[in-house]
């Protein structure tokens, strides 16, 4: 079990943001976290990691000490911050901070090279990360999280701002990682891509999990109506379902 | 290690040697080295060991300290305009020194002034921790530092304003400009140990500073404890800046300009910048201190004046570069 949240409740300014959340995540799972803006997706991720104080409940990750947790779970926050004009290579190397070796050991070099290759950034290696486009920066930051080589990867809207081809490539990579034995928790707004690639979906609405199951079980019209206040229509294609808001 | 670091280290050592060879006594290089080890005749060993050596050591250490703390503050706040004076400790140290001059304490003993300044610095850091609290983010820290700086500045201005003695007022103004003239080995022993400890504390934060490149949330997820980092950094900066101000006065611009200039040289990594900015700070301050002695030896030109004169144009150059499409 990579992540286990039990009865987790989080309040911000005395307003409950997450209510009694129970969630487990295992290896080989690519779990898509869906829900409207403000439903509590980012809060769930940060509280699970122990970066936010919880009012009640437990998270196995929050109970670890900081460096042990950093070797178990990588986190890609929603805000894509890069403060200094460092090279792509140096930025990806930041993922090695939790590991001994200062980013220069052989295992570190291997992890950095693998992450850069997986995100197809070889040609950008020596370029200054800040001079890349927004979408390219996102890919560099994903590579940074992969270089951390953790069993669990938690990514907050990792494919937002990528072009359609890159979104697809990125979801494929996440699925590959899950097939290799990682566990991933990924918040996502593209329901079609979520349905195609995720092994399991979790639907959040007003701080509660209102559905947890296979994409087919979760993307039901009544649940969509409840979570997003909109009607949807599902069209089955050979590549998977398409979900159209109407 | 990149060749740029070796170049900086070589340059700093050269300037250290030149600093030892610069002065009104006119001692040749060979004589200077023998005198440094206590050999040679007449006043030479004393001149070398009691006057020039402490001056060169303080120039190196204070320059390095200011450069390194500047790099650390910029890395921590993720802002290229941050500088070591931002936490208010140097302002409070200056206030302590100014009070020592005004009350005449500095006339009683040569060490009364640095001790008063250290006391001021300690008061400043206590006030900072009281205001900013044990948790709190970097914004609270800057606001508290700015408030303390303003308070210390007002205190200094008040002392000058009410000073009945024009000589004391004159002395205060000159002291505030910063100088390394007539410092002794006692000053070195007073300042160096806390500065080394502070340097060690800041060196320990280097990976956390690197992690902050990705923002506070990502850094926390990489295992950086924000509270611990802030504590280490603030105490480290105070241990360097407090003693530096106590023995040399307020020297501006080094901590601001040096990290800025050297950032592209080390690929902008905050951890690599710590060492580079330390060496660069030593180069700038030793260079300024040598030029003070060469340009107008009889007029006692002040160090802070020179660093500002060098620093401001360099800063303008950077603004020019940013305007034409670069990035700070």
From TrEMBL, chain A:
Domain annotation ABC transporter: ranges: 3-231
InterPro entries tied to this protein: AAA+_ATPase, ABC_transporter-like_ATP-bd, ABC_transporter-like_CS, P-loop_NTPase
Coiled-coil stretches noted in the UniProt entry, renumbered to this chain: none
Gene3D superfamilies the UniProt entry points to: P-loop containing nucleotide triphosphate hydrolases (3.40.50.300)
UniProt cross-references to PROSITE patterns, sorted A to Z: ABC_TRANSPORTER_1, ABC_TRANSPORTER_2
One GO MF term: ATP binding
Keyword ATP-binding: yes
UniProt cross-references to Pfam families, sorted A to Z: ABC_tran
Transmembrane spans: none
Signal peptide stretch: none
Entry annotated with the keyword Translocase: yes
SMART domains: AAA
Keywords: ATP-binding, Nucleotide-binding, Translocase, Transport
The protein's role, per its UniProt record: Part of the ABC transporter complex HmuTUV involved in hemin import. Responsible for energy coupling to the transport system.
Name of the protein in question: ABC transporter ATP-binding protein
UniProtKB/TrEMBL annotation, chain B:
InterPro entries named among the record's database cross-references: ABC_BtuC-like, ABC_transptr_permease_BtuC
Transmembrane segments: 56-73, 85-105, 111-132, 139-164, 184-203, 233-261, 273-296, 303-320
Membrane topology, as annotated: Multi-pass membrane protein
Source organism, top-level taxon: Bacteria
Keyword Lipid biosynthesis attributed: no
SUPFAM superfamilies noted in UniProt: ABC transporter involved in vitamin B12 uptake, BtuC
Compartments reported by the entry: Cell membrane
Chief place of localization: membrane
Pfam families: FecCD (PF01032)
Keywords in alphabetical order: Cell membrane, Membrane, Transmembrane, Transmembrane helix, Transport
Family to which this protein belongs: Belongs to the binding-protein-dependent transport system permease family. FecCD subfamily.
Protein name: Iron ABC transporter permease
Species this chain originates from: Paracoccus onchidii
């Amino acid at each position: 079990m990579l992540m286990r949240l039990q009865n987790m409740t989080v309040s911000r300014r005395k307003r409950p943001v997450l209510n009694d959340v129970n969630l487990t995540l295992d290896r080989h799972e690519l779990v898509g976290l869906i829900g409207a803006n403000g439903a509590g997706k980012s809060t769930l991720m940060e509280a699970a990691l122990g970066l936010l104080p919880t009012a009640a409940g437990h998270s196995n990750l929050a109970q670890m000490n900081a460096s042990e947790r950093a070797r178990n779970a990588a986190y890609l926050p929603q805000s894509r911050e890069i403060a200094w004009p460092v090279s792509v290579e140096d930025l990806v190397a930041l993922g090695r901070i939790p590991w001994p070796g200062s980013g220069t050991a052989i295992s570190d070099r291997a992890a950095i090279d693998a992450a850069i290759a997986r995100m197809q950034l070889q040609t950008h290696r020596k370029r200054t990360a800040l001079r890349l486009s927004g979408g390219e920066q996102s890919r560099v930051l994903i590579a940074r999280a992969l270089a951390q080589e953790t069993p669990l990867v938690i990514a907050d809207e990792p494919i937002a701002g990528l072009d359609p081809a890159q979104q697809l490539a990125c979801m494929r990579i996440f699925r590959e990682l899950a097939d290799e034995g990682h566990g991933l928790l990924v918040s996502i707004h593209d329901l079609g891509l979520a349905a195609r690639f995720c092994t399991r979906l979790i639907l959040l609405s007003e701080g509660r999990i209102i559905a947890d199951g296979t994409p087919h079980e979760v993307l039901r019209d009544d649940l969509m109506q409840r979570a997003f206040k909109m009607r949807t229509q599902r069209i089955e294609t050979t590549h998977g379902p398409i979900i159209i808001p109407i | 290690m990149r060749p740029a670091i070796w170049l900086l280290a070589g340059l700093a050592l050269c300037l250290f040697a030149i600093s030892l060879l610069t002065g009104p006594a006119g001692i040749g290089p060979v004589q200077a080295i023998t005198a440094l080890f206590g050999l040679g005749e007449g006043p030479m060993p004393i001149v070398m060991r009691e006057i020039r050596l402490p001056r060169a050591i303080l120039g190196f250490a204070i320059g390095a300290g200011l450069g390194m703390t500047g790099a650390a503050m910029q890395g921590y706040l993720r802002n290229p305009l941050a500088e070591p004076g931002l936490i208010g400790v140097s302002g409070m140290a200056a206030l302590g020194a100014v009070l020592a001059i005004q009350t005449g304490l500095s006339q009683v003993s040569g060490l009364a002034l640095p001790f008063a300044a250290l006391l001021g610095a300690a008061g400043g850091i206590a006030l900072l921790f009281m205001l900013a609290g044990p948790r709190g983010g970097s914004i609270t820290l800057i606001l508290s530092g700015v408030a303390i700086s303003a308070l210390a500045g007002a205190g200094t201005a008040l002392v000058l304003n009410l000073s009945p003695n024009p000589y004391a007022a004159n002395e205060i103004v000159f002291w505030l400009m910063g100088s390394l003239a007539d410092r002794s080995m006692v000053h070195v022993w007073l300042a160096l140990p806390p500065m080394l400890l502070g340097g060690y504390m800041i060196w320990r934060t280097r990976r956390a500073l690197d992690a902050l490149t990705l923002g506070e949330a990502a850094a926390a997820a990489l295992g950086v404890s924000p509270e611990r980092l802030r504590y280490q950094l603030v105490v480290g900066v105070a241990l360097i800046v407090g003693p530096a101000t106590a023995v040399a006065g307020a020297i501006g611009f080094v901590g601001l300009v040096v990290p800025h200039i050297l950032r592209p040289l080390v690929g902008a990594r905050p951890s690599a910048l710590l060492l580079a900015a330390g060496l660069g700070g030593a180069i700038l301050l030793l260079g300024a201190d040598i030029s003070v002695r060469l340009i107008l030896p009889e007029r006692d030109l002040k160090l802070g004046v020179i660093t500002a004169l060098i620093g401001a144009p360099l800063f303008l150059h950077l603004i020019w570069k940013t305007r034409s499409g670069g990035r700070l």
